[in-house]
Amino acid sequence: MTNLKHSLTAQQIEAHPLVREAVARGFIKFSNNRITYHLNQKKEYNWFDPEEWVRCHAIAWLIIEKGYPANRIRTEVAVPRRVPEDHADIVVFEDDRCRIPYLVVETKAAGQGPAGRRQGIEQLFGNANSLRAPLGLYDEYTESFFYDIANYPPTERNDNLKGSRDAVPDQYGRVPKYTYIAGSTVDIRPVDPGSLETRIRRAHSIIWAGGKRDPLTAFDEWSKLLFAKVQDERTTPNGEPRKFQVGTNETSAAVASRIHKLFEDACQADPTIFPEGVRIELSDRKIVEVVRVLQDISITATHVDSIGKAFESFFGSIFRGELGQYFTMRQLARFIVAMLDIDHRDYVIDPTAGSGGFLLEVLLQVWHKIDKDFAGRSDLERLKIDFALHKVYGIEIHPVLARICKINLLLHHDGHTNIEGDRSCLDSIFNLPRLNPPTAGRFTRVVGNPPFGDTVKEGDEDLLGQNSLSNFHVAEGRTQVPSEHVILERAIQFLADGGRLGLIIPDGILNNPGDHSNCPQVRRFLVMNGVIEAIVSLPDYAFRKSGAQNKTSILFFRKFEPHERVAFKNAYDAAREAGKNEEEALIAALEALNYPVFLAEANYIGYTATGVPSERNDLYRSCEYGILNEDQSGTILGEYRRFRSKPDSYDGHRLPDCMAASIVDIWRAHESHRLDPKYHLFKREERTITPKGWIRRRVAEVMRRREEIVRPQDSPYEPVVVMTISQTGEIRAREAGKGNNPPEWLGMYFEDSSSVWYRARKGDVVFSAIDLWKGCIAVVPEEFDGALVTKEFPIYEIIDERLDPEFLSTLLRTRYYQRAFRAITTGHSNRRRTQTSDFEALEICFPPDRRSQTEIIADILRARQLQREANNLLRQAMLRFSDLIDGRGDMEYIVPVDDDENDENE
Known about the structure:
Elements: H1 10-15, H2 17-24, E1 28-31, E2 34-38, E3 42-46, H3 50-65, E4 73-78, E5 87-93, E6 101-107, H4 114-131, E7 135-139, E8 144-148, E9 161-163, H5 193-208, H6 215-235, H7 252-269, H8 284-294, H9 304-318, H10 330-340, E10 348-350, H11 357-373, H12 380-390, E11 392-396, H13 399-411, E12 419-421, E13 443-448, E14 455-457, H14 461-464, E15 480-482, H15 483-494, E16 495-506, H16 507-511, H17 519-529, E17 530-537, E18 552-559, H18 562-577, H19 582-593, E19 596-601, E20 605-607, E21 613-617, H20 636-645, E22 657-662, H21 663-668, H22 677-686, E23 695-698, H23 699-702, E24 703-706, E25 709-710, E26 723-725, E27 731-733, E28 757-759, E29 765-767, E30 777-779, E31 788-790, E32 795-798, H24 805-811, H25 815-824, H26 836-841, E33 843-846, H27 850-886
């Protein structure tokens, strides 16, 4: 070896590849002229000591090069039967408890003279013999001597010299045996979706470590190991052992070193997923545990739909609202992609790609279509690869999620190279050429489920990048807007003329009134830039499993073709020149095109509120491996196809409810131009539901708003009853002292109230403006005559004497009117608002005489009375039984109930 007696420096050791690897893996740390070893014990030493430089190299070499586990290595080990100050520099043990010494290492500063070297070797032998270690290594970096100590006399120094440090056995001298050989009969194998899900879930659980790592960090580390595994599956030649496995007699250090190298090679081969310098940040033991879980399966050989099913369940259960991410269930992605009829000629982008669920579905459906349309063709696989590599794009702002998305696509046999990570889709400059500029319109399809609930403010570099909010039409005149508004506009900008999008959007965009919400402006932008082809309403529980309570719909939109844009503009301009206002001009432009819109409402979507798969699916019908069934009759997809074939003669469908209406009729149907399907589908049904012999009247014709304002503070000592309404239609008194309620309902406590209070009268109809859609409506009974409510509980007195209050109370609890109330609500959160104008526009049906009304509801009233009597009998029986046990008579035991229902309506 070269004599480095006078040239070895601390900097040389710090720069040594083995030491750098040991530092990267957390075994060694340099700080403030100190070195810390994280081995079986954590110990710190002076880095100015030249002997420490040699020990540092030796430890790194033992772990990285020779595969000895760090948890079996100790420094400064006390040596029995020697002077108290004598310690062995390094001892490698055979067991995790460090009870059985295997190799003793004596280190000295580089370039020792003969005397110093002899002294060091003698010190090695004395320590090794005292510790009963079979092997010893003298190491001064420039020179090293390896001895077999156990098999020779204690004084032997020549015959037992076996060479330099290179002669030290790897992994205790035990040659690993490997089970899985590439291309052999004992190789890794594909698995079914359930087995794959179990494996990837177990692997993630090991990394997550019961919450020691946050979910996204755990995902990131999980992705690195899967990336390494794919590298092994794709690059290990036939006849060679798989690298992503744990051999018999193999140490954790050796396995981890090989996996680190696999990951490094994968990053070099494909630098598009992880940034330069990223490493696996897991302990050797964790790496080995994960490898054991995944080593016998082949992900690249598993059917892509099996992978999809496994990952859907995995991501769907892990991703939650607290991560700011709501995983889109695969049924929704599959339906949207099917409705857009994407094929291999399309350029597709998901502007908020998340974990890549929509893009995966695009790949699967297009590949199925290629298999069908190009069966037997020699270029079939080439078509699939070209589509995946060149026509599927995504953008994801969160860098970790972007990497997860890329890995997800990679595991599904590619399509990952066109993911723009760590950047918002609202930015104006991108790394991928096809995205620049985003307003160029280079995509024929846009898919996705944009996040909503965030606010984009002017100057927000995280969300806007180098862009400005003023560049978006939907933000005109505003310094901030909801994120979903500008993302929708950006999605339309991505589209080429005639391009189509399918996006999940909050219902607020479709129905919120008032310019303050900005939603009417978004609706105007939609109809002024393209054709609303279809809107499908989703059930309230669509995202409940992910922790979201939002009411959503799916918007299918087509950007204007050039001739449509010209026709729309000409009609609009002509109307304006004729003196029409903006609203009248917009209607004139819509009349010039007057296209039909498909509207549908799904009650069942292939999974339950808890995310459990269900056979009931109004959206579509599928076969094995996610292939869509040829027969889609009776599904919304089938109805939409029927509508597309003959849009002008489409007659609609019931259960699932589907209809078609002209954009002009839809636009004119409501003063706020609401577009939500549930509203228009109900209004269509409303015109057809009138039982024989009944009459139909608008609410405004039979009821009148009562606004009897009360000032309780004017009578400070007078008790007051404040009422609220449950979802079952029960009126009850609000509890004093609960939440923000005063300790007593006395007039004096209303002095500082900012609310305006109204008095309700017996027989009045009262509902919760926020929770009417949940069933919070009732007729005021006698015991609450004169009770108070805030403006959030509109009060109506019955002015049509033909209408019996008890009948009306029962009528409003029927399924039909519960659906009606849900149809007229606006917004998308768990607390949606009902406008009084929409309530008054509802039509109710009733027999024209009270006697008929009483007869109709007689059974219901009798059943209610029997229910009350039964409840009372049960209560009395329980009290008698309780008295038998504790002798406390009829004393009631009050259990506190935490029920805040409607208490936030003030």
